[in-house]
Amino acid sequence: MNPNTRKLHDLGQRLWLDNITRDLLQSGTLSHYIAEFSVTGLTSNPTIFEHAIGSGDAYDDAIRALVAQGLSTEDIFFELALEDLTQAADLFRPMFDASAGAPSGSDGWVSLEVSPLLASNTAQTTQAAARLHARAARPNLFIKIPGTPEGIPAIEQSIFDGVPINVTLLFSSEHYEAAAAAYLRGIERRVKAGLDPSVESVASFFVSRWDVAVKEDLQPQLHNRLGIAVAMQTYKVYRDLLASERWQVLAKAGARPQRLLWASTGTKDPVVSDTLYVEALAASDTINTIPEKTLLAYADHGKTGSILPADGGYAQAVLEEFRREGVDDQALAARLQREGVQSFTKSWSGLMARIWEKGSQPTLVNPA
Question: For the CA atoms of the chain, what is the radius of gyration?
Fold first, then answer.
């Protein structure tokens, strides 16, 4: 087992792969990553599937077969995605079963996102989450719901309904707090109703997009520092919540923590280390979902640096420095979340178009 990735695993941080393709599954590459690089889970999103389905011919025969059944482009996509992700879930199932009941949360999860077109519709998001999880019929499959204002009540209701949720597109400690509160409310409602409180969830905080957003407006000495600082601040809120009396009551009842997950951790700036965010965000009881390129880089030359401090460390000082330079981090967090939804919506439209093109059948519903 690779010593670099093993150190993070032993620290208590789980590495998940931020990618899914049929080739990864069929070639044995994902199995290799599990065995050699301590990969214990996998995430997907519309952008990942747009690339996977659109870049080659691995899905073409399946698309044509589904077209012949008269399915819409969206239904075809979910059939393809569920086929891939249920295979991945089955591959991870032994580690999921082995870790079942662990107080810190189980290993072996995969994630499927609801349509980004539902981001502003609470009721339809909740319905889609329940429907997709039932169709997958796998206990180790998270449904991803964005932590938008409309997504927050859908997260609470889905947790109450027993649907494991990966909250996506969180960009600030305030976003994380809202997602965590929704999770807690859902679990508290289950306890009150006499239901099993062990419905798992993760909260996905996006890191590198902060630094991309401000790079052109700041001096080079401030580059690639903001995302890590906001992540450190969010980690403090996370640790404070786990130490709170409210959480301890739920933990004693059998609930498991909604683990904090670092997302968007591939380095975008070529002048800094390609493992910058992985090294900076080493912390116990967290997850880092990383692109394949970043995983291979960390396995090759990554180093486990200082562990994130539970008290936020120097995060507040760095944030004050950026504020003096005119960065309104709260406004920027809101903008990044909106742009995240817009980006996934654009990828979704591209994905539907590629399925339409590959199907080339008149029975297929035109995505336009």
Answer: 20
Question: Parallel, antiparallel, or unpaired for β 201-206 and 13-17?
Answer: unpaired
| 39-42 and 201-206 beta bridge pairing | unpaired
Which residue has tokens 């120097």?
A: 314
CA gap 10, 165 in Å, rounded: 25
Residue-wise pLDDT for 332-366, tens only, equals: 999 999 999 999 999 999 999 999 999 975 444 44
Supply 41's token pair: 């889970």
- Domains of the chain by start residue, with CATH: 3-359 (3.20.20.70)
Cβ contacts of residue 23 below 8 Å, gap of 6+? 29, 56, 58
What pTM did the predictor assign? 0.95
CA dihedral 314, 319, 325, 329 (to 10 degrees): 170
Helix (H, G, I), strand (E, B) or coil at 12: coil
Does 192 qualify as catalytic in the annotation?
A: no
Distance CA 363, CA 218 (A): 52
Find all residues with CB under 8 Å of 109, minimum gap 6, and list them: 16, 40, 41, 42, 92, 96, 140, 141, 142, 164, 166, 200, 202
DSSP secondary structure letters along 281-311: T--TTEEEEE-HHHHHHHHHH----PPPPTT
pLDDT-derived band at 101 (thresholds 50, 70, 90) equals: confident
CB 294 within 8 A of CB 213: no
Residue 78's CB: how many other CB atoms inside 10 A? 20
Q: What's residue 155's pLDDT?
A: 98
- The encoded tokens of residue 239 equal 């640790």
Which is the catalytic residue, given 144, 192, 215, 293?
Answer: 144
**Type of residue numbered 362:** P
pLDDT, one tens digit per residue, over 168-224 is 999 999 999 999 999 999 999 999 999 999 999 999 999 999 999 999 999 999 999
What whole-number distance in Å separates Cα of residue 62 and Cα of residue 165? 28
Closest to 81 (Cα-Cα) out of 123, 111, 57, 119: 111
- CA angle in degrees (0–180, nearest 5) for 22-27-28: 110
Residues in CB range of 297: below 8 A, 6 or more apart: 274, 275
